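Limitations

Structures in this collection are predictions, not experimental determinations, and the ligand pose is part of the prediction. Treat each record accordingly. The example that follows, with copper (II) ion as the small molecule, is included so readers can see exactly what is and is not provided: the inputs are given verbatim, and the output is the predicted complex.
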Amino acid sequence: MKKTVLSIALALAAFQASAHDHSTHDHSGHDATAADTKTYHEVQSINDVLTVENARAKATIPGVKVSAGYMKITNDTDEPIRLVEANSSIAKHTEFHRMFMRDSQMAMRKVDALEIPANGSIELKPKDYHLMFMGVKEALKPGQEIKVTLVADNGEKFDVQLTVMPMTKY
Ligand SMILES: [Cu+2]
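Predicted complex:
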């Protein structure tokens, strides 16, 4: 029994070590709330305006050309920020979506903008706000890095790196 626990711990440690081995990004300690962030915590500071944490996308299922992206976005300025567009070369269309309950079933709809309060944050996460990739051009594989550009209503662009995570983590 002890041996099993130890080998899981070692596997986790190895995963964390590799997840943290991005020399161009800042990293901070663990503040995990969801299962999928327990082994993945990465912080990107973008244009000194936004801090993005745990940016990730789902791996695609063979034959299915859609995926979703998640992250926590913090506004480091004293003014609210309105993100009105998202683009990525990996998909024909990238949209902001939100899941909601309709007749006791989960459904989702496009949202025109993501509002991030001054010095506040918004979390894109499963069953809530997310990025939706439609018409994914090539299969997304775990470990792959993809770039998504978020565009604010004043035209400012923010390039975010997302790590593709296995489907089983969601
Ligand atoms: Cu969606």
